[in-house]
């Protein structure tokens, strides 16, 4: 039996007793009045004992706003909110600002129903933290990032020999020029001077000499002071050697040099060059010998790239031609077609690549531009035939006047690369190995059959740090067994729509390289940054996330301004004391004086 | 009272004077001390605080030299008398006691007293020294400021030098070693004296003998020197604290001192190799051609440099006689006249060779080169230089002209005739009279002129007859019958380019040579007309040589060739029986060699971890030890570049407490320097692991289309 019922029973009994006593009184004058007074007194007594509340509509915005301090807030902007309650999640801010109340989680603000609006000072909150706010309206006017790297992008996985290129933006607020230096193995590899004041897009590049897991550094230096030092984790993998089949109409220097270069780099090369009618010169380098006189789909399946003269490919007999087309469109074999002077043909190999001749008598040596390379090649006699642009092709090699000398097009799941260049070996003869390897690496890399892999790990968090949970994405055909991060088993969750995607949530315990491995899979690595790294980008990200939160919760905050919410308010006891007193005084005065 | 006021006034003036002079002394002292301090600071770099005692001292000196307080009232009064006529030479009266004054003096005193009150306290003469002092002070300040700005620059460079020295790691010596004395005896060829040093780091000449004298502070059992981690040299002891050994250094590298099993730091050994001598021939040119008539002498002017000393230099000359199969060679070794006893590092040598002394005749060639040997028996030699004497016999021969292809007109041959005549005239010079000689010389000049004019026609030059048309009696324009005949006038004065006779069919190159020939003819004619046929000969020869060249050029032609291949029978093409022909087959396996930098690359990963972790475990140690071996090989070849990294690596390996980040950086830098550039090779992309989703997408896309 609770307090309320006890009080009620007692009061009813008391009221009955009081009424009976009044009724039993000798002096019957003013009986009704006395009975009412007695009842009122009992009622008042009951009300004093009972917790009486009532509901009332209140306007939400009338209620109090609190301030949350986040990293990057300005002390001056806090002054105008001197009377407002201030909270923070950061111990450092607590130390600077004793007035702020340190919270362990945002739930504590959300749970307080009196808080109707949150004013966030500083750079804002992370996505995870914003989720905890549960739609609470916030006010957020961030200051833009003053100085630092506000954007940076680089390939985190490279193949040996590929250049590492970092592009980004440095915002400079000072009047001094800032030097951005790319460092690897404690050696300055590339640097650029940023202008004073304003946004400075930058690009730094180097060809890493090392393989494996590497951490490069990006330094911002003013004078002799390093104002920012960021890690650039890069994994450099050795190149997987490809198998190349070369078909030539006659033995020529171009294929000979290509064969020598590829085979010396360890690639498997099979060459079939026609020397007479149905007579071939065959070479197998780094490859077991097998018949290649007639091309079957089984033969072609052994290779990743086919490099062939257009004349040879066009004159393949029916069975060979269809086997080739099947292998390319269905299985993804790539073909590099070395064009000749025929400008048009209906063959599927040349249909996408109509060629034309330059209006010159003698071809002039011109520097070429390779896709993905900033520097031009040495001057080179590219010949008169060029590919007319247009169609569904992507140009790979052009000269300065945008004549295309190599282009690629999709052919089912495979790729066709077409080039009229037939004397690139002259670079090699001139000792210019660099341009030669760049050109053929580009062409073969574009055409090569894509390597099948069984698993693919990705970090979803852009800049994973120790203080935040990170998400890893595994693309895998079957459900992963026992995912281990640093030898700790972690559960994985399947994507609700894509059956081959699995998500792993992990809270890193240390900065640096972390290993992740599923049972039966290879060891993969991801990098966890220190808490103080990439502060500029992370601040910008937090601002963006917080703004997005405002966007998505905009409707919510508007509605709450108009709806009057019910609030429970306790009735003050003073009224009942007064009522009791009046009733008692009436009874006493009536008995005494009247 | 009157006397007193006068005395007071004069003593007031005296006080003013003394104050001004003292101020002047202070200023002088300041100027003097500023100059002194500037000079001393510039040369000895002492602190500027020394200015204070210097100033005090110089002030005392100045004050006591002048002793301005010693000036008496009488001197002041006398000064006033001289300066102010109104005092009437009587101001001294105020100094006299009143009792000694006679009546007249009393009267005069009263007058002077009144005047004295009017005189101002300072006189402009008082300022004289102050002005001078101020000027000196200003000059002193300017000088010190200038010196300061100069010395600032000096300081700046000093600072740079200091910082450079600071980067050189100070040598760490084992605690047992109390003293080390290294004697370096440079090899004989350097000609340098033995030197001593108290450091282990060696920078010695190739082949130098180095003797180590090591003194230990406690008795030790044995001391070794460990060179490049391989070679061990034991030191011999005289007693248990005195050790010594010597070694000839010929390879760069590094070494360590091993005292009773304790290894020292790594010490660098750098070897200064001897450079071979550098020989440069200033004259003659690489190809020298001595024309007929020129002096048959050459002057060989050579400069020889070596880093230590030149021991000898020789001219190796070869004379080639004859031509074709009959060519004969004769070799000579010629000494320079100067001696090489001094073994100086630099010589400027000259040698005059008279070619006939080497039995050289016209048409012969001399090949020579200069070879120098330095004190280390290293030799170097120059390129071969060639001197040719013109063969006049060849030039005058008729061989070329007798051949059928010669198409040139007759007059091309007369330059040769002029030469023959000139030589004949010179031979006859002694037997004929001067007048006759001059006449014949002049005649030859006329012949030369005619020849020149005839050549000039080829170039389209005006003939001499054009100069004065009035002399020409056959001028058709001058004929009265042709009056008004425009065709005749036009014919004379127009330049008929299309006329086949006049058309200049020579190419520009040929014309240039013709012009050069004409110039030579001009010069020859000049000398002939001056009755100096001897001087004319070289020009005549040159003209003849140029003409011969012209002749040779005109003979160059290429025969037309004609080849008519038989027509192809298309039906027979590629129809041969090839069944018995084997197809060539070639099989090869080229396996790329193992990566020689594998160990270094592994070490990089370990070093990266060390930066954050700071502790080293056994597995890491093994990886780093392998990398260390590779670095040690590098360091023995290039100690200057790799030794700091190697010692840093050793520190990392030996340090138990923690790893120094600067050591890691040093090692990383060395590894980056060692690794070779990665070469780009083709790489395939990666197929998505999407259960064939994208493939299905493309397939369905095809069916939709």
From TrEMBL, chain A:
The chain crosses the membrane at residues 6-24, 31-54, 574-591. Keywords: Membrane, Transmembrane, Transmembrane helix. It comes from the Bacteria. The keyword Transmembrane applies. This is Aerotolerance regulator N-terminal domain-containing protein. It comes from Mucilaginibacter dorajii.
TrEMBL record, chain B:
The keyword Transmembrane applies. The chain crosses the membrane at residues 17-40, 46-66, 132-151. This is DUF4175 domain-containing protein. It comes from Mucilaginibacter dorajii. Keywords: Membrane, Transmembrane, Transmembrane helix.
């Amino acid at each position: 039996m609770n307090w309320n019922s006890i009080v009620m029973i007692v009061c009813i009994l008391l009221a009955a007793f009081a009424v009976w006593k009044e009724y039993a009184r000798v002096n019957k004058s003013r009986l009704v009045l006395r009975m009412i007074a007695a009842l009122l007194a009992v009622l008042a007594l009951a009300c004093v004992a009972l917790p009486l509340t009532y509901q009332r509509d209140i306007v939400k915005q009338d209620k109090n706003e609190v301030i949350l301090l986040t990293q990057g807030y300005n002390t001056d902007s806090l002054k105008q909110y001197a009377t407002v309650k201030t909270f923070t999640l950061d111990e450092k801010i607590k130390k600077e600002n004793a007035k702020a109340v340190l919270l362990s989680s945002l739930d504590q603000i959300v749970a307080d129903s009196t808080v109707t609006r949150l004013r966030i000072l500083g750079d804002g909150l992370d996505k995870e933290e914003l989720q905890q706010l549960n739609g609470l309206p916030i006010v957020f006017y961030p200051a833009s990032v003053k100085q630092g790297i506000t954007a940076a992008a680089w390939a985190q996985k490279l193949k040996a020999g590929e250049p590492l290129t970092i592009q980004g933006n440095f915002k400079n607020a000072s009047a001094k020029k800032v030097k951005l230096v790319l460092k690897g193995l404690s050696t300055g590899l590339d640097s650029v001077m940023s202008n004073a004041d304003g946004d400075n897009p930058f690009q730094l590049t180097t060809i890493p000499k090392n393989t494996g897991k590497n951490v490069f550094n990006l330094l911002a230096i003013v004078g002799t002071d390093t104002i920012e030092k960021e890690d650039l984790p890069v994994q450099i993998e050795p190149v997987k050697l490809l198998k190349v089949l070369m078909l030539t109409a006659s033995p020529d220097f171009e294929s000979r040099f290509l064969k020598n270069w590829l085979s010396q780099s360890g690639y498997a090369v099979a060459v079939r060059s026609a020397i007479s009618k149905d007579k071939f010169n065959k070479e197998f380098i780094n490859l077991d010998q097998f018949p290649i006189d007639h091309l079957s789909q089984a033969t072609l399946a052994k290779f990743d790239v086919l490099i062939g003269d257009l004349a040879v490919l066009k004159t393949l007999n029916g069975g060979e031609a269809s086997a080739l087309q099947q292998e390319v469109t269905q299985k993804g074999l790539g073909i590099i077609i070395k064009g000749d002077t025929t400008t048009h043909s209906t063959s599927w190999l040349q249909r996408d690549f109509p060629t034309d001749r330059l209006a010159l008598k003698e071809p002039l040596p011109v520097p070429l531009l390779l896709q993905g390379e900033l520097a031009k090649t040495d001057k080179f006699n590219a010949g008169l035939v060029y590919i007319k642009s247009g169609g569904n092709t992507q140009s790979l090699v052009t000269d300065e006047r945008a004549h295309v000398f190599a282009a690629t097009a999709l052919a089912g799941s495979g790729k066709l690369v077409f080039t009229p260049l037939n004397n690139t070996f002259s670079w090699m003869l001139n000792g210019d190995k660099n341009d030669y390897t760049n050109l053929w690496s580009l062409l073969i890399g574009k055409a090569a059959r894509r390597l099948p892999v069984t698993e693919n790990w990705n970090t979803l968090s852009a800049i994973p740090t120790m203080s935040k949970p990170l998400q890893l994405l595994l693309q895998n055909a079957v459900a992963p067994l026992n995912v281990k991060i640093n030898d700790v088993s972690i559960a994985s969750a399947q994507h609700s729509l894509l059956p081959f995607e699995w998500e792993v949530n992990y809270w890193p315990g240390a900065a640096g390289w972390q290993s992740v491995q599923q049972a039966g899979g290879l060891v993969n690595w991801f990098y966890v940054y220190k808490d103080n790294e990439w502060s500029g980008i992370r601040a910008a990200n937090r601002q963006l996330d917080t703004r997005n939160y405002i966007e998505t919760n905009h409707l919510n905050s508007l509605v709450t301004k108009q709806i009057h919410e019910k609030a429970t308010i306790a009735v003050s006891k003073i009224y009942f004391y007064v009522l009791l007193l009046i009733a008692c005084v009436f009874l006493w005065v009536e008995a005494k004086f009247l | 009272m009157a006397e007193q006021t006068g005395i007071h006034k004069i003593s007031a003036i005296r006080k003013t004077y003394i104050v001004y002079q003292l101020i002047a002394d202070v200023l002088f002292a300041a100027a003097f001390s500023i100059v002194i301090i500037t000079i001393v600071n510039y040369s000895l770099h002492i602190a500027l605080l020394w200015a204070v005692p210097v100033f005090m001292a110089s002030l005392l000196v100045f004050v006591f030299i002048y002793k301005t307080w010693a000036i008496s009232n009488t001197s002041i009064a006398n000064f006033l008398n001289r300066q102010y006529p109104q005092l009437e030479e009587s101001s001294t009266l105020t100094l006299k006691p009143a009792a000694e004054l006679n009546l007249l003096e009393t009267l005069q005193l009263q007058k002077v007293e009144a005047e004295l009150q009017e005189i101002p306290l300072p006189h402009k003469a008082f300022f004289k020294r102050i002005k001078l002092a101020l000027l000196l002070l200003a000059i002193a300040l300017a000088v010190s400021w200038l010196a300061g700005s100069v010395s600032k620059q000096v300081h700046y460079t000093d600072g740079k030098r200091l910082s450079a020295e600071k980067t050189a790691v100070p040598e760490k010596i084992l605690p047992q070693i109390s003293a080390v004395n290294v004697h370096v005896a440079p090899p004989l060829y350097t000609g340098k004296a033995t030197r001593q040093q108290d450091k282990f780091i060696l920078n010695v000449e190739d082949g130098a003998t180095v003797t180590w004298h090591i003194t230990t502070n406690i008795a030790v059992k044995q001391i070794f020197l460990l060179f490049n981690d391989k070679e061990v040299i034991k030191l011999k002891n005289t007693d248990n604290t005195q050790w010594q050994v010597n070694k000839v250094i010929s390879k760069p590298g590094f070494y360590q001192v091993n005292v009773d099993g304790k290894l020292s730091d790594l010490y660098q050994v750098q070897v200064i190799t001897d450079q071979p001598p550098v020989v440069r021939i200033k004259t003659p040119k690489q190809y020298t051609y001595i024309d007929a008539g020129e002096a048959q002498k050459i002057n060989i002017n050579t400069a020889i440099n070596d880093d230590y000393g030149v021991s000898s230099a020789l001219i190796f000359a070869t004379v080639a006689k004859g031509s074709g199969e009959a060519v004969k060679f004769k070799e000579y070794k010629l000494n320079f006249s100067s001696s090489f006893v001094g073994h100086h590092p630099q010589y400027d040598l000259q040698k005059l060779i008279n070619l006939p002394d080497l039995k050289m005749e016209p048409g012969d060639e001399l090949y020579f080169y200069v070879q120098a040997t330095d004190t280390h028996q290293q030799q170097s030699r120059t390129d071969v230089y060639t001197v040719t004497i013109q063969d006049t016999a060849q030039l005058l021969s008729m061989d070329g002209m007798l051949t059928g292809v010669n198409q040139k007109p007759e007059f091309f041959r007369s330059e040769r005739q002029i030469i023959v005549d000139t030589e004949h005239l010179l031979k006859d010079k002694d037997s004929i009279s001067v007048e006759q000689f001059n006449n014949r010389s002049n005649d030859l000049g006329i012949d030369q002129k005619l020849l020149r004019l005839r050549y000039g026609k080829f170039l389209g030059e005006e003939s001499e007859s054009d100069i004065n048309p009035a002399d020409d009696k056959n001028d058709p324009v001058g004929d009265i019958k042709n009056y008004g005949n425009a065709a005749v006038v036009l014919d004379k004065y127009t330049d008929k380019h299309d006329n086949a006779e006049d058309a200049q069919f020579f190419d520009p190159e040929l014309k240039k040579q013709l012009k050069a020939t004409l110039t030579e003819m001009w010069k020859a004619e000049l000398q002939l007309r001056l009755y100096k046929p001897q001087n004319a000969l070289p020009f005549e020869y040159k003209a003849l040589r140029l003409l011969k060249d012209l002749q040779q050029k005109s003979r160059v032609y290429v025969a037309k060739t004609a080849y008519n291949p038989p027509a192809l029978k298309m039906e027979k093409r590629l129809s041969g029986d090839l069944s018995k022909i084997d197809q060539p087959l070639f099989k090869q396996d080229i396996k790329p060699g193992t990566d020689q930098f594998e160990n270094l690359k592994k070490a990089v990963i370990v070093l990266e971890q060390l930066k954050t972790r700071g502790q080293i475990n056994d597995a890491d140690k093994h990886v780093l030890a392998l990398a260390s071996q590779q670095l040690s090989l590098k360091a023995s070849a290039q100690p200057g570049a790799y030794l700091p990294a190697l010692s840093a690596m050793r520190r990392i390996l030996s340090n138990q407490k923690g790893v120094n980040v600067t050591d890691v950086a040093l090692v990383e830098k060395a590894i980056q320097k060692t690794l070779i550039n990665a070469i780009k090779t083709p790489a395939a992309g990666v197929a998505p692991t999407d259960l064939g989703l994208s493939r299905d997408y493309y397939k369905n896309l095809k069916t939709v289309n």
